What does this fold into?
Amino acid sequence: MLNARIKLRHLQAFLEVARLRSFARAAERLSISQPGISKTIRELEDTLAVSLFERTPLGVSLSQAGLTLLRHAGPAVRALEEGVDALQSQQKGADWLRIGALSTVESQLVPEALRRWQANTMTERGAQVVTGTSAFLLSRLRRGELDIVVGRMTEAREINDLSFEHLYYERLQLVVRHDHPLLALPTLTAESISNYPWVVPPPQTTLRHQVDSFCVRHAIAVPAQRIETLSLALGQRYALSGDAIWIAPEEAVRIAIDRGELCELALPLELHGGSVGLCSNRSLLPTLAAEAFCEALREVAADVVVGHRDKSHNP
It folds into this structure.
């Protein structure tokens, strides 16, 4: 057990004298007087009952006991300083957050969580929101370039060594403009929708895998006449202005469907949907900002689940 009489100032003074081989230069480096540093070293030597330095014509050199202490005190003090620096850096960045947002959550979940996160504090908070594919965002999270990634990503192989917290399930939907010819058909089949342009997620994305699975189940192919994009704004505008079928996350089309601008086709692309949640890097200590934002995400997600339940009970 460390002797309670040994203080950090004793070890800092010892390390500076050992490094500079001079009481005078060490005192100047630590901004204390030479008698002061001599007194500090003497207190440390008295506590340990050893002589740590030997006087020579060229200054001072470490005794055998001093060499032993140096091997242990040096790394210990450096580790403590690094810990304090890391904590201070974390505190400085406590009000800044780096978020990766998949298209499944950038319409409602993330904007509303950001609003609550910024509102529930007396300090100013800011965030950088990066969008893209799950593979891209999860690779940045793994490298420590993002604090958290939010969205539907459990199907991504890049998630295997990261920590995922489920929030709710959400489906991909086949949607069209409110007066689309397909809505007038008495019976909707997979063959009938393959005769129209599609707006689909790009290849090699988790959402596109679901589209491909749908096509396999119904023995059809993704039409050659298609737009591949993760842009929600482009997908919605393209579907509203023509005959395209937009395959979109439920969150992204909810408001347009409620307004009567878009309608979901009576051909489910998937029955239960995928798991939407938040992903973090378990090897990194979460910042205060990240912890607060995750709590805001959970609150908003709870509202989403309640909203889904109310809709299912009140068609």
About this structure: The chain has a mean pLDDT of 88. The chain is about 45% helix and 20% strand.
